[in-house]
Amino acid sequence: MAFSYKRLYTGPVQAVVFDWAGTVVDYGSIAPIDGFCMLFERNGVPITLAEAREPMGTEKREHISQLVHMPRVRQAWTEKHGAEPTEADIDRLYEEFIPIQVEAIDKRADLIPGAKETFEYLTARGIKVGGNTGYSQDMIEGLIAKAAQQGYKPQSIVAATDVPRGRPFPHMTLKNLLDLEVENLHACVKVDDTVPGIDEGLNAGIWTVGIAVSGNEVGMELADWNALSEQQQDALRQKAADKFYRAGAHYVIDSVAELPEVIADIEARLAAGDQP
To answer: Is 243 a catalytic site residue?
Structure first.
């Protein structure tokens, strides 16, 4: 007679992997949008904020590729340049984008309120912290230094250019977790403000937490968010949360400031035998 045994992990959370822009720094995830809009403006094909945000979370060359292949953008590009965009155009745009993005990131390097406290909470509990990003390593050198000065120092940092495939593939998160030497994937959490980032965590087989307000889905600076009425805030919050839950996120919170409550709930679920 066949015997079936289900192995369960019932211990504490071991590691959390955070996205960067819109999750721990850059309230509203403004830096990437500033960079993409400036890039296309300089090339005579202005794009809207909504267009710039649509592929958010992907590796930046792939982001540019998706932008130029949007029907409206492709048509505008063809009218401006006399031919449809090519792979060579995308390569050139990406090289032109790097210094633009570095400058934009440098201006948006402040930690999101509560990020430092959440990092300290995790550290005090012995929970390891990793960070990954759709930015390339050369884009984030200054950001890493500025975040460290503010008290945020992940033990593993992975960029999309460090792995074979960026989001929604799980490669970045899995590399973070290898670096952090975790024991069990079920003890790990991915926190991100984009659907590709949630997909990344799900594809890695770990718990996922969507960031509804401080990141890409609302896409507003803190002062602009605070200027909204409670009703306006609720509508935007709900729209973002619905999108993340439809994508399969296990939890959705306004910002990383609320993560400690999620960690406590995940640990209670793990103790009861739940799995992501």
So the answer is: no
